[in-house]
């Protein structure tokens, strides 16, 4: 398996390629610039009926509708992790209005450029996009009322760091709503060696129970599943990566791939005593 640095470089490369093409081109060539994976598109939900939807910002890369569930209010400061071309950020802007603020963070420079171009076309003065790593966010602590993210966290190798950063930047009493890919059962070991399946959010997914445990360990409360959708990968896509024998083994297994939308609160008062020696949560 690749190390953390190699995985991040892989993700940046793949999503830079995707940022260079339209949603139509991405769909027609199956997985953006590389010609193989509807694996990027089979997970996406329909955004078109949400207020603030902008087709130029929709590259079809999500796996949920976190902004629909995020309980965003007018005047809020919202942070979108892995903001891509700006799709979720612009929908959040529709809700927060002119008094609010939306900040998108993305590790891919070309995505940031595309999002800034889209924001300029829309004339938004209170939406900004910053180049950065979501496991080391370029934001002050206690900054956000709401954090959203759509099918991004499973691309990050160290999920403990990401949820620790989300906890740090949220104001006391703030919350997040995040859509992401998880698994139940044991995915084939070979999947973790296939770059396209990692960049397509499948082989980077961890077990559902582990995912929820990481959120709890980070200090969040009121952890709630807002949506749990099974993802079926068509055999014609699997055949791009796996042998017939491997596909049959997978189909006979107890593996379930799912898109979760998870909500959780940052407590108004953190009583974990994190600064005490041996607490383990700093």
The CATH class designation is: Alpha Beta
CATH architecture: 3-Layer(aba) Sandwich
User: CATH topology, anyone?
Assistant: Rossmann fold
Low-confidence stretches: 27-38, 275-280
The mean pLDDT is: 85
Structural class: alpha/beta
**Main sheet characteristics:** 7 strands, mixed
Number of domains: 1
Give the helices and strands as they follow along the chain.
HHHEHEHEEHEHHEHHE
Strand content: 15-25%
Q: If strands are numbered along the chain, what order do they take across the biggest sheet?
A: 3-2-1-4-5-7-6
Shape label: globular
Q: What is the count of helical runs? A: 10
How far is the N terminus from the C terminus? Answer: 28 Å
The count of DSSP E runs of length 2 or more, i.e. the number of strands, is 7
């Amino acid at each position: 398996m690749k190390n953390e640095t190699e995985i991040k470089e892989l993700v940046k490369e793949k999503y830079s390629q995707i940022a260079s093409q339209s949603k139509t081109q991405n769909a027609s060539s199956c997985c953006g610039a590389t010609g193989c994976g509807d694996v990027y598109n089979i997970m996406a939900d329909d955004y078109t009926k949400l207020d603030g939807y902008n087709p130029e910002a929709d590259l079809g890369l999500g796996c949920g509708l976190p902004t629909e569930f995020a309980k965003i209010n007018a005047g809020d400061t919202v942070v979108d992790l892995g903001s891509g071309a700006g799709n979720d950020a612009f929908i959040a802007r529709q809700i927060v209005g002119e008094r609010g603020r939306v900040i998108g963070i993305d590790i891919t420079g070309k995505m940031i450029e595309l999002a800034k171009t889209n924001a300029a076309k829309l004339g938004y003065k209170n939406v900004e996009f910053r180049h950065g790593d979501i496991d080391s966010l370029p934001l002050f602590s206690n900054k956000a009322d709401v954090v959203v993210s759509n099918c991004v966290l499973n691309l990050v190798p160290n999920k403990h760091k990401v949820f620790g950063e989300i906890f740090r930047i949220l104001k006391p009493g703030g919350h997040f709503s995040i859509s992401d890919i998880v698994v139940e059962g044991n995915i084939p070991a070979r999947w973790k060696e296939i770059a396209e399946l990692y960049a397509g959010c499948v082989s980077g997914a961890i077990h559902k129970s582990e995912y929820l445990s990481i959120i709890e360990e980070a200090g969040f409360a009121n952890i709630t599943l807002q949506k749990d959708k099974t993802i079926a990968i068509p055999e014609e896509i699997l055949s791009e990566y796996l042998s017939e024998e491997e596909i049959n083994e997978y189909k006979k297994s107890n593996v379930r791939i799912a898109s979760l939308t998870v909500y959780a609160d940052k407590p108004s008062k953190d009583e974990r005593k994190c600064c005490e020696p041996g607490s383990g949560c700093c």
